[in-house]
Amino acid sequence: MYQLYGHKNSGAAAIEAALELCEIPYRFIDVETSPEAAKALEKLNPLKQIPTLQKPDGGVLTESAAILIHLGLMFPKSNLLPEDVAERDQVIRGMVYIVSNCYAAIGIIDYPERWLAKADQSSRENLMAGTRQRLHWSWEVFADQFSGDLYLGDETPGALDVLAAVVTRWEGSREYLRHARPGFFAWLTRIDRHPTLAPVFARHWPS
Asked: Which residues make Cβ contacts (< 8 Å) with residue 62, sequence separation at least 6?
């Protein structure tokens, strides 16, 4: 059985959603509510980053895009990755874009002191504000380049959909996109409502 290390309101939601689409058994291990789970995560992933996925054979996968690609290749009937090679290339490109430009920016906003030689309050606030602006612009670029590859409501959402639906939930990105890219915002809303994904998102972001 797959074991997914994460916690609520985290990137682990994208992997949990993907596991649901694969229709395979898995165990979600909340590292915020269990010190033992946190220690187990550190042994598997010294960076203590989530999501971390332990495979049934004991192997460990980290990095959201890599995990989603693994699941898409292992469970092709899930439609996480398209069968068509050219389409699959663009989905992988889109996931790497999100991780490199959007997910990475959120890490800077959450932990600005890691990127400053002198982390005084003014420097922290300046770095966070600038990074947030860059994050929102990066989502505009994503919307312009990748919206055509996203779920439209008449097929199964894929890996790119679940990753975009999760990572846009932070740092005001959804509200920004509501006005800056309303078409993309509408796509995200449809992904949120998919019957397989909605329960996962409700567990991570209860209303």
From this structure: 45, 47, 49, 51, 52, 53
Q: For the structural domain made of 2-78, what CATH number should be given?
A: 3.40.30.10
And the tokens for 188?
A: 């995200």
Q: Domain map of the chain by residue range? A: 2-78, 85-199
Q: Which residues contact 59 (CB under 8 A, 6 or more apart)?
A: none
Angle of CA points 37, 40, 45, to nearest 5°: 120
Write the DSSP symbol of residue 10.
S
The model's pTM is 0.93
For the segment 163-190, the average pLDDT, to the nearest whole number, is 95
CATH tag, 85-199: 1.20.1050
Q: In a 10 Å sphere around its CB, with 0-12 CB exposed, 13-18 middle and 19+ buried, how is residue 101 labelled?
A: middle
Whole-angstrom Cα distance, residue 197 to residue 191? 7
CB-CB neighbours of 11 under 10 Å: 24
